Amino acid sequence: MAESENPAKAPAAANDPVEAGALAVEATETGKGKRGNPRQLGNLAMIGKFASAYPRQIALALLALTVAACATLAIPAGFKLVIDRGFGGDGGSAEDIGRWFRYLFMITVILGLSTALRFYFVSWLGERVVADIRLAVQRNLLGLAPSFFETNRPSEIASRMTSDTAIVEQVVGTTVSVALRNLVVGIGGIAYLFSLAPKLTGMLLLGIPLVVLPIVFIGRRLEKVARSSQDRVANVGATTTEVLAAMKIVQAFGQEEREAARFGDAVETTFATARRRITLRASLTAVVITLIFGAITAIMWQGAIDVIEGRLSGGDIAAFVLTGGLVAGAFGALTEVYGDLLRAGGAAGRLNELLNEQPEIRAPATPVVLPVPPRGQLSFQNVSFAYPTRPETLALRDFSLQVSPGETVAIVGPSGAGKSTLFQLAQRFYDPQAGSVRIDGVALSSADPREIRQRMAFVPQESVLFAASARDNLRYGNWAASDEQIWEAARAANAEEFLRKLPDGLDSYLGEGGARLSGGQRQRISIARALLRNAPILLLDEATSALDAESEKLVQNALERLMQGRTTLVIAHRLATIRSADRIFVMSDGGIVEEGTHDQLSARNGLYARLSALQFTEGPLAAE
Ligand SMILES: Nc1ncnc2c1ncn2[C@@H]1O[C@H](COP(=O)(O)OP(=O)(O)OP(=O)(O)O)[C@@H](O)[C@H]1O
Q1: Ligand 1 centre and the CA of 417: distance in Å?
Q2: Ligand 1 centroid – CA 36 distance (Å)
Q3: Domain annotation covers residue 599
Q4: What is the residue with the minimal CA distance to atom 4 of ligand 1?
Q5: Which is the closest atom of ligand 1 to the Cα of 461?
Q6: Are the C-beta atoms of 131 and 321 separated by less than 8 Å?
Q7: 591 within domain boundaries
Q8: 542/551 Cα distance (integer angstroms)
Q9: For the segment 500-555, what is each residue's pLDDT rounded down to a tens digit?
């Protein structure tokens, strides 16, 4: 009748004292329930807030929980009736006996049903709350500026989304229900015990600290030794890895004997610690079993005397032992609850941080509306900017540039000159420390970032494709696009031919990151996507990855169509792009050092001429 969802979590849920004791030892030894910080418990309010959206489920869960707890307590009472009336030999017929057994059977059915319902509603709540927390965290993350992700690693955030939410799920789905159920069973059980046999119950309550304290005391020491035992094992692992990795050096220097001795030391220390651990655990087992069975024997002894002297019936003793087991199990399970709540407090705290993080880039209260129709003008005015993680280094210094509607401006310059930073600021992923960036004359900081980005199409250097269909990848920037428009864009981006050859056409799955396409094909999908977005301003970071001549021609041709009729700022690596640009700006160290056309700049013999000789080729560039 152990009704715990997770038997390993509730050692005392087992009514067998030996098993309960052994589980308690196990739990202490593995150092389960790493101690959290009690101050973190306040974070649990956040879980309550999410759960409070489902009052109906909470009410049903509480109802089922109460019925189940009462039914649990009714079982010993049923046994008492069965023994006293059924076996008790007051001369009843088989028919009379059947009544008590039917009664017991009914309680069992109620217990089964209510436990199942409690499990369903409580687990439902746990899963729903976690789902809602995940959704809320993700929604908040999507609105944060890139600077947040520079200081918070994605892997760490992903772990919060999975393991921390799992801990929260455990609290809502298990811990709270374990706590409530066992409180009801524990308190109700003690009340019932008192009504059955007050003296025996008094003895039981006095005996509990005598049994529990030594177990807790030895358990704490065991936990410490277990931890150091784990450290020693890790040490053996580290020594092994080190020697294996340096095998040639060990042998070249003839250090085999020394390494064997060193390893021997590590193994022997591990063994010594393990011996201390198993000695402690053996004594704990002896203490647990002796104390628990000793206490039960003493109580039964007293009970037997009471039965002989007519103060108690056989059924009373049976009910007492059963209820005593339930009460002990309930309090055992409750000792676990605090540790679980502490861990959950930590997890909820970390999730809370993600939920409450405010985006650094936000629309002002009353954003200025961008002019309609869009002109496609982009300007940087005396912009100075340092990335938040490197405040002492200016990535752009007093940078000014005006790009007129329909103009193509190529930016060239050595690595680290600040070219990509221009794009980051144009899309308002960061705000400059001085100066302003404007689109159609409106300062980006006074407009809604979403409206700004709506007017731009960005083609990154490395095509970013999603593990989705070709259709969804293409219309990523314009979900309203019809298949006809998609094919039109694909045609203009020289992507139609290979898309038509895909097994399921636009429905074909492109694989993780578009892995099922070649590099050149991915670039053309990226270009078609920008075409579909049909934005007045194009930010194009030309790919540097090498393509074969045929593919190169297709991409170049697609890019030319994309740039037609749009204001384009292009970080250029291909000579063809640079040549076709209206103006070329050469950047170095966050500023513009030269400006002109390809021919003018080539003739000047400056940075451009040097870069040009080294980097710009008819074909793609090698990586800088
Ligand atoms: N997210 C960031 N956080 C901190 N510093 C950054 C960040 N991104 C770029 N930087 C720094 O800002 C400066 C300008 O970088 P940027 O990426 O704009 O150069 P780039 O000209 O685009 O170079 P490349 O051609 O190699 O892409 C560099 O010194 C770079 O190290």
Answers
A1: 7
A2: 40
A3: no
A4: 387
A5: 27
A6: no
A7: no
A8: 14
A9: 998 888 898 888 877 778 888 898 899 999 999 889 999 999 877 667 777 778 88
Compute the distance from residue 152 Cα to the ligand 1 centre, in Å. Answer: 18
**Are 136 and 218 within one domain?**
no
- In short, whether 438's Cβ falls inside 6 Å of ligand 1 is no
Which element (helix H / strand E) includes 408?
strand 408-412
Residue 342: closest CA among 170, 152, 127, 124: 170
Sign of CA dihedral 508, 511, 513, 516: negative
**Residue whose pair of structure tokens reads 């610690």 in the numeric block:** 273
**Is residue 77 in some structural domain?**
yes
pTM greater than the 0.80 cutoff: no
With the most atoms of ligand 1 within 8 angstroms of its CB, the residue from 151, 385, 390 to mutate is 390
**Predicted ipTM?**
0.95
Q: What tokens were used for 385?
A: 């900017």
Give me the helix-helix angle, 314-356 and 198-245, nearest 10°.
Answer: 50
| Torsion sign across C-alpha atoms 190, 194, 200, 203 | positive
State the residue for tokens 């929260």: 168
Residue 146 Cα: closest atom of ligand 1 = 1
Judge whether 185 and 368 are in contact, CB under 8 Å.
Answer: no
Nearest CA residue ID for atom 11, ligand 1: 395
Average pLDDT over residues 310-337: 85
Amino acid at the residue 59: A
**Distance, CA of 207 to CA of 598 (rounded, Å):** 94
Same domain, residue pair 274 and 138: no
**What is the per-residue pLDDT for 25?**
44
Q: Give yes or no: residues 47 and 193 share one domain.
A: yes
**How many structural domains does the chain have?**
2
Are 556 and 579 in contact by the 8 Å Cβ rule? The answer is no
pLDDT of residue 432: 94
- Across 287-301, 334-348, 382-396, the highest mean pLDDT is recorded for 382-396
390 lines ligand 1 (CB under 6 A): yes
Testing ligand 1's pocket by substitution, the residue of 385, 397, 419 carrying the most ligand atoms inside 8 A of its CB is 419
pLDDT in tens, 19-60: 444 444 444 444 444 455 677 788 888 889 999 999 999 999
194: pLDDT strictly greater than 50: yes
**Centroid of ligand 1 to alpha carbon of 396 (angstroms):** 10
Query: Which DSSP symbol is given to 359?
Result: P
Q: What is the pLDDT of residues 94-119, one digit of tens each?
A: 777 777 788 889 999 999 999 999 99
Note down the domain range covering 39. 33-197+334-357
Q: What b/e string do you get for 284-316 counting C-beta neighbours within 10 Å, with b at 16 or more?
A: bbebbeebbeebbeebbebbeebeeeeebbebb
417 CB under 6 A from ligand 1?
A: yes
SS3 content of the chain, % helix, strand, coil (to 5): 65, 10, 25
**Which residue CA neighbors atom 9 of ligand 1 most closely?**
421
118 in the same domain as 187: yes
